[in-house]
Design brief:
Number of strands: 20
Oligomer: single chain
CATH architecture of the largest domain: 3-Layer(aba) Sandwich
Distance between the termini: 56 Å
Number of helices: 21
CATH superfamily of the largest domain: P-loop containing nucleotide triphosphate hydrolases
CATH class of the largest domain: Alpha Beta
Shape: globular
Number of domains: 4
Helix content: 25-40%
Strand content: 15-25%
Length: about 575
């Protein structure tokens, strides 16, 4: 132990190295990384998937997944009593690091559903750190947990304390994780992609909450993200990582307005690109409303068995060659409506008239048997999760070729040639078709999903949050690919998203959903440029602005206030 000279310095990381030995060689996940964390300041660590951001954070708490190990460097934690300890020298299973985890350094993980126990009430989970570190009596623990739930603005904390994880929305579960992290008043908070799975309005609330609590408690915050818009809104300093190395490190304004690294400029450019309409769509004459629409939905309704009206009298029209964006928060009914169109769910009321390639019209809501099966060949879906939507036990050739086999369109050598052509069409090397999904990156897996969707030459594709799981640099690539395929194949898209910047970039028209209903619809330019409904205004104002000189989230519109 030794005294520290900088009273605001909480953690000093120098030349950190983390390696993963594999059968094919040594992977340097973190390679000579250095940075400091100061009390009351936010350091954003940014980079694409695989850059080493999360491994760096996990190294601080000595929770690097095996067979990874820290092989060099120091991580000196400065304590309130003037002493310090090098975390890199502590035994990962020892009592000293366990005493630090949760008490002096807390962590919020990316996916709250897998980080919280499904069988314990949230009050027990939040109070566990108090029991372990302070042996706090049960009655005092309960009072402290209720106080924490109030701090993170969970409604009716006296009731919420006795609920289970599944009873909370994604945003509320993340608030529970924040309450858990703050239980012991840590001096440092690590937030590992805490808003990635959230819609923009919930993300804005969580970012504001972390900032407010940081100010109250004086914590140092290490915020890991791949979203440069979020970085611009909240960071004091920025650390840019790529393949385990630091590409750039400095104040947020310098990083955004005078980046020294080409990689940093690329990340910023990827976000700025989505601030306006895609080049290929600027000046494009959107398909005009005409009697011969591709899809006409009228008064569509679906009520689940628990009485929840997930889709409530929805009406919309899709023209040939058009991209219609459906935007709204989680729980607004976007995905449910998309699944109704493919009859994954059976809506109870309304019509879904789809014009077939031969000019005949079929009501998808009432279609059965061969009629429904043949219509589904013309309507395909791209799913949100490129990992979960691909069978890990099948080769890519089998995954892409399956729709062709089921439709009886190709066999044997012809099937193999069609699969190779589809892979080339979406930018994948046809030689990779014998590989399995785990051998591909997230962006490549989404390209596989797109190839599967276009295999039977559909006329309408429902893309359900097709880019939300991707890094921002990959997001515009996927959108550009879909627009290219649209032009080549004459496709129509229904593009479901919670991100208005993605909708603005690609879509001709937009329908805004809230609690199962469409509250506003119009051209993309009209809806994003001059929103009429207060909920649309709230969505637009919650988009992080990728310029630290013009931070807007603090002045965003809140829909509940607009209603009052």
């Amino acid at each position: 132990m030794s005294a520290t000279t900088d009273k605001d310095l909480v953690l000093s990381v120098r030349n950190l190295k983390v390696e993963f030995p594999t059968r094919t060689g040594l992977i340097k996940a973190v390679d000579d990384v250095s940075f400091d964390l100061h009390r009351g300041k936010t350091l954003c660590v940014v980079g694409e998937s695989g850059s080493g951001k999360s491994v760096s954070a996990r190294a601080i708490l000595q929770i690097v997944d095996r067979p990874g190990r820290i092989v060099g460097g120091s991580m000196v934690l400065s304590r309130a009593d003037g002493t310090s300890v090098d975390l890199a020298k502590l035994n990962p299973r020892g009592g000293e690091i366990r005493a630090i985890r949760g008490r002096e350094i807390a962590m919020i993980f990316q996916e709250p559903m897998s980080s919280l126990s499904p069988i314990h009430r949230i009050g027990e989970q939040i109070g566990e750190a108090l029991r372990i570190h302070f042996n706090t009596p049960k009655a005092e623990r309960r009072a402290r947990v209720i106080e924490l739930l109030e701090q993170v603005e969970i409604p009716r904390p006296h009731e919420a304390i006795d609920r289970y994880t599944f009873e909370f929305s994604g945003g509320m579960r993340q608030r529970v994780m924040i309450a858990m992290a703050l239980a012991c008043n840590p001096s440092m908070l690590i937030a590992d992609e805490p808003t990635t799975a959230l819609d923009v309005t919930t993300q804005a609330e969580i970012l504001a909450l972390i900032k407010r609590l940081q100010t109250q408690h004086g914590m140092a915050v290490m915020f890991i993200t791949h979203d440069m818009g979020v970085v611009a809104e909240i960071a004091d300093d920025v650390l840019v990582m790529y393949r385990g190395k630091v590409m750039e490190h400095g104040p947020v304004e310098q990083i955004f307005h005078a980046p020294k690294s080409d990689y940093t400029a690329m990340l910023i450019g990827s976000v700025v690109k989505l601030e306006s309409k895609a080049e290929g769509r600027q000046g494009r004459v959107a398909p005009q409303m005409a009697p011969k629409s591709l899809l006409e939905v009228r008064d569509l309704s679906l009520t689940f068995g628990n009485g929840l009206k997930a889709v409530d009298s929805v009406s919309l029209t899709v023209m040939p060659g058009e991209t219609l964006g459906i935007v709204g928060e989680s729980g607004s009914g976007k995905t449910t409506m998309g699944r109704c169109l493919l009859r994954v769910y059976d809506p109870q009321h309304g019509i879904m008239n789809f014009r077939r390639a031969d000019g005949t019209v079929i009501d998808l809501r009432t279609a059965q048997g061969e009629d429904l099966k043949s219509a589904r060949r013309e309507i395909r879906m791209i799913f949100q999760d490129p990992v979960g939507s691909l069978n890990p036990r099948k080769r890519v050739a089998d995954i892409i070729g399956e729709p062709l086999k089921l439709a009886g369109l190709a066999r044997g050598r012809e099937l193999d040639e069609r699969v190779a052509a589809l892979m080339a069409q979406v930018g994948l090397d046809p030689a990779w078709r014998e590989r399995y999904p785990h051998a591909f990156s997230g962006g490549q897996r989404q390209r596989i999903g797109i190839a599967r969707a276009i295999a039977v030459k559909p006329r309408l594709i429902v893309a359900d949050e097709a880019t939300s799981a991707l890094d921002v640099s990959l997001r515009s690539q996927m959108l550009d690919l879909m627009m290219q395929l649209q032009d080549e194949m004459g496709l129509s898209f229904i593009f479901i998203s919670h991100d208005m910047s993605v909708i603005r970039y690609m879509c001709d028209r937009v329908a805004v959903m809230y609690r199962g209903q469409i509250v506003e619809t119009g051209t993309t330019e009209a809806v994003t440029g001059s929103p009429q409904h207060a909920y649309t205004q709230a969505l637009l104002s919650a988009i992080p602005n990728p310029d630290p000189r013009d931070r807007r989230l603090d002045a965003r519109v809140r829909y509940q206030e607009a209603l009052s």
